[in-house]
Specification:
Belongs to the MnmA/TRMU family. It catalyses: S-sulfanyl-L-cysteinyl-[protein] + uridine(34) in tRNA + AH2 + ATP = 2-thiouridine(34) in tRNA + L-cysteinyl-[protein] + A + AMP + diphosphate + H(+). With 363 residues, the chain is α/β, with parallel strands linked by helices. It has three domains: 185 residues, HUPs (Rossmann fold), CATH 3.40.50; 59 residues, Adenine nucleotide alpha hydrolases-like domains (SH3 type barrels, Roll); 85 residues, Translation factors (Elongation Factor Tu (Ef-tu), domain 3, Beta Barrel), CATH 2.40.30.10. It is built from eight helices and 17 strands. Strand 14 and strand 15 form a beta hairpin. Helix 1 packs across helix 7. The protein is globular.
Length: 363
């Protein structure tokens, strides 16, 4: 097949491209220029938006022996990922930008362009598996598994995707890169959010949303306990950074329970109040099987799966949890998995819109 290898400049995408060549495919490498000014995003080897990354990708393509191009997708990335990230926080939610990047950039803008140019598929270095049955599965390296951030893809998009690294560990990838003579073999993994240059999310959001102060309110009594400098600086489940002068009656710490942008209010309470028994998601993508199923759900990146009963109706996914889960933030994804001897199968996903507290009275 004629395939396009998305090369970030990291070790995973370089080895994925090399493996695609070994498999007999006609491979062309492409680096996505995602920053309008590469110096304003990540620096060094921390992300996927730097000049260093572009050069690393080009050198890897030279070693592999494939054509290489740079595609400027900065405007699309800024609108679909960065602006979305900011607007989600402004609405009191906690987004996962990697989900949006996969959905809107790598497997929408890039895949659409690749297909228009006559390519059959896009190859990436994600740690996930696509079986011969076309089903998305977890990686064999559960510590690096990225099926959670790929679960937003549609069956059509998965039909034009290739993930050559799903059957190896990250240690295997680095060893293989070294054997192939790829200079990125020991390059550090990216961390945090690639478009926030110094990793300071609160500062980044404050520059774009302002620092309007508002009340921090106790959930039980309604009393104002303190003041914050911008609700966007908080997320559900957060404990640090509240700077409350009035301790709880029992002396235990308080946690963020909810954020209300309309009134610019942060509501706090005891850790037990973070327990939820139901999660409701919107914009559901269902990939496999019946839309009412007992399965497992993962509620945050690298979170522990929990047993649930899942129902999908008219684009809304409802997951009723067998055991309460703690600190689930709207804006994240709920991803449903079916345990399988060959690796957990991704059934579908949705963006978390709301939750039902374990302490809520029965309807």
């Amino acid at each position: 097949m004629k395939v396009l290898a998305a090369m970030s400049g990291g070790v995973d995408s370089a080895v994925a491209a090399a493996r695609a060549v070994d498999a007999g495919h006609d491979v062309t490498g492409v680096h996505l220029a995602l920053a309008r000014n590469p110096q304003t995003y990540r620096s060094g080897a921390r992300g996927c938006c730097t000049l260093e990354d572009s050069r690393d990708a080009r050198r890897a393509a030279d070693v592999i022996g494939i054509p290489f191009y740079v595609w400027d997708l900065a405007d699309e990335f800024h609108e679909d990922v960065v602006d979305n990230f900011v607007s989600e926080y402004a609405a009191g939610r906690t987004p996962n930008p990697c989900l949006r990047c996969n959905e809107k950039i790598k497997f929408a803008a890039v895949l659409d362009k690749a297909l228009a140019l006559g390519f059959d598929a896009v190859v990436t270095g994600h740690h996930a598996r696509l079986g011969a049955d076309g089903l998305l599965r977890r990686s064999v390296d559960l510590a690096k598994d990225q099926s959670y951030v790929l679960a937003v893809l549609t069956p059509s998009q998965l039909g034009h995707a290739m993930f050559p690294l799903g059957d190896v560990t990250k240690a295997d990838v680095r060893a293989e890169a070294s054997d192939r003579g790829l200079a990125v073999a020991d390059k550090p993994d990216s961390h945090d959010i690639c478009f926030i240059a110094d990793g300071d999310t609160r500062r980044f959001l404050g520059e774009r949303l302002g620092t309007a102060s508002g009340p921090i309110v106790d959930a039980a009594s309604g009393a104002v306990l303190g003041e914050h400098g911008g609700a966007h600086g908080y997320t559900v489940g957060q404990r640090r950074g509240l700077h409350l002068n009035r301790p709880a009656p029992d002396g235990k710490p308080r946690y963020v329970l909810s954020i209300t942008p309309v009134t610019n209010t942060v509501t706090v309470g005891p850790v037990e109040a973070l327990d939820v028994v139901e999660v409701r998601g919107e914009r559901a993508v269902w990939l496999s099987g019946p839309t009412t199923v007992d399965c497992q759900v993962q509620l945050r990146a690298h979170g522990t799966p929990t047993d649930a009963s899942v129902t999908v109706v008219d684009g809304t996914l409802t997951a009723r949890l067998r055991e309460p889960a703690r600190g689930i933030a709207p804006g994240q994804a709920v991803v449903a998995y079916r345990p399988d001897p060959d690796g957990d199968i991704v059934l579908g996903s949705a963006t978390i819109a709301s939750t039902v507290s374990a302490a809520a009275p029965a309807a």
